[in-house]
Amino acid sequence: MAAKWSSIVGVSADQPHVRFNPLRGEWVLVSPHRLKRPWSGQVEKGGDEVVPPHDPKNPLCPRAVRANGEVNPDYDSTYVFTNDFPAMPPGAPDLGESGEHHLLRAAKAQGTCRVMCFHPRSDLTLPLMALPEIRRVVDEWANQITELGRSYLWVQVFENRGKVMGCSNPHPHCQIWASSFMPNEPGRSDANQLKYYEEHGAPLLLDYVQLELKKKERIVVETEHWLAVVPFW
């Protein structure tokens, strides 16, 4: 692999260098020589907490009472509801753009935040679920993105799992945020992909896929429909 890196970037594999990230439009420092340090990185202790299949006090479980007093249905598959404490409550007024000074500007942040439970059991995670159950989760992701995408500029599905990530509820679930504005990171990526298309006449990511398929140096998983790589950037 060291020789391949050298042939790509024109430097020794042990030599620090920068690589251009076309999605972010910026250069990233790469210091491969630091892998020779004696420190292997911080190791977090694995969770040893026993999670029951159902806890009536867990607000994400079927038939449980949530903080706002609503009772969850006795769901047996996926279940989606509007977050009881959303960062962007639906129906927020449009304040327009305002500011007493050009350095003190504010604008509307309209949207909605939903919670999606993957499974009625709390002691499961996606890797432990059966394939048909995982398929239902993915299908519901697609449904939510399609529905919310009709009304909002951006829809983000994400999962924070584990106490180290600030998520203390073990029940398998994710967050779905839809907003009237484009967040900074995807906005930058979108602008750079448009610029690439205008300059090269082809989508940036599709070109990158073809490049990785040709080199076969950083591929993790390759199927008929998916390609996962350790990105060059």
Automatic annotation (TrEMBL):
<feature type="compositionally biased region" description="Basic and acidic residues">
    <location>
        <begin position="45"/>
        <end position="57"/>
    </location>
</feature>
<keyword id="KW-0299">Galactose metabolism</keyword>
<keyword id="KW-0548">Nucleotidyltransferase</keyword>
<dbReference type="GO" id="GO:0033499">
    <property type="term" value="P:galactose catabolic process via UDP-galactose, Leloir pathway"/>
</dbReference>
<dbReference type="GO" id="GO:0005737">
    <property type="term" value="C:cytoplasm"/>
</dbReference>
<feature type="domain" description="Galactose-1-phosphate uridyl transferase C-terminal">
    <location>
        <begin position="192"/>
        <end position="233"/>
    </location>
</feature>
<dbReference type="GO" id="GO:0008108">
    <property type="term" value="F:UDP-glucose:hexose-1-phosphate uridylyltransferase activity"/>
</dbReference>
<dbReference type="InterPro" id="IPR019779">
    <property type="entry name" value="GalP_UDPtransf1_His-AS"/>
</dbReference>
<dbReference type="GO" id="GO:0008270">
    <property type="term" value="F:zinc ion binding"/>
</dbReference>
<keyword id="KW-0119">Carbohydrate metabolism</keyword>
<keyword id="KW-0808">Transferase</keyword>
<comment type="similarity">
    <text>Belongs to the galactose-1-phosphate uridylyltransferase type 1 family.</text>
</comment>
<dbReference type="Pfam" id="PF01087">
    <property type="entry name" value="GalP_UDP_transf"/>
</dbReference>
<dbReference type="InterPro" id="IPR005850">
    <property type="entry name" value="GalP_Utransf_C"/>
</dbReference>
<dbReference type="InterPro" id="IPR036265">
    <property type="entry name" value="HIT-like_sf"/>
</dbReference>
<dbReference type="Pfam" id="PF02744">
    <property type="entry name" value="GalP_UDP_tr_C"/>
</dbReference>
<keyword id="KW-0862">Zinc</keyword>
<feature type="region of interest" description="Disordered">
    <location>
        <begin position="39"/>
        <end position="59"/>
    </location>
</feature>
<dbReference type="InterPro" id="IPR001937">
    <property type="entry name" value="GalP_UDPtransf1"/>
</dbReference>
<comment type="pathway">
    <text>Carbohydrate metabolism; galactose metabolism.</text>
</comment>
<feature type="domain" description="Galactose-1-phosphate uridyl transferase N-terminal">
    <location>
        <begin position="15"/>
        <end position="183"/>
    </location>
</feature>
<protein>
    <recommendedName>
        <fullName>Galactose-1-phosphate uridylyltransferase</fullName>
        <ecNumber>2.7.7.12</ecNumber>
    </recommendedName>
</protein>
<keyword id="KW-0479">Metal-binding</keyword>
<dbReference type="InterPro" id="IPR005849">
    <property type="entry name" value="GalP_Utransf_N"/>
</dbReference>
